[in-house]
Design brief:
This is Z-DNA-binding protein 1. The protein is an alpha+beta fold. It is built from three helices and three strands, in the order αβααββ. It has a domain of 59 residues: Orthogonal Bundle (Arc Repressor Mutant, subunit A). The radius of gyration is 18 Å and the shape is elongated.
């Protein structure tokens, strides 16, 4: 499992960011995230860019953030499912 950040406030902020992005259902501007999370934009950006490196969020456009591929969205299989025994062609 990934190592948690050392600062418990950052962990809490990370969870709040993910919750706001989930609730929005679409990309959110940094200014709106800072307002919703009630933190200075500087602190928000530090956490957002760390989360970007961890693929928890994605940068959708200038100062616009969305959910990343780090398990916060619906999980899609990496490979297509194998056909069942009955569907496999016989050799």
């Amino acid at each position: 499992m990934a190592q948690a950040p050392g600062d418990p406030d950052e962990t809490d902020l990370e969870q709040r960011i993910l919750q706001v992005l989930r609730d929005a259902g679409s990309p959110v501007k940094s200014v709106q995230l800072a307002k919703e999370c009630q933190v200075p934009k500087k602190n928000l950006n530090q956490v957002l860019y760390r989360m970007l490196k961890e693929s928890k969020v994605s940068l959708e456009g200038p100062a616009t953030w969305g959910l990343g591929q780090g398990g916060t969205r619906e999980v899609e299989p990496a490979e297509p499912a194998q056909p069942s025994q009955a569907e496999r062609p016989r050799k």
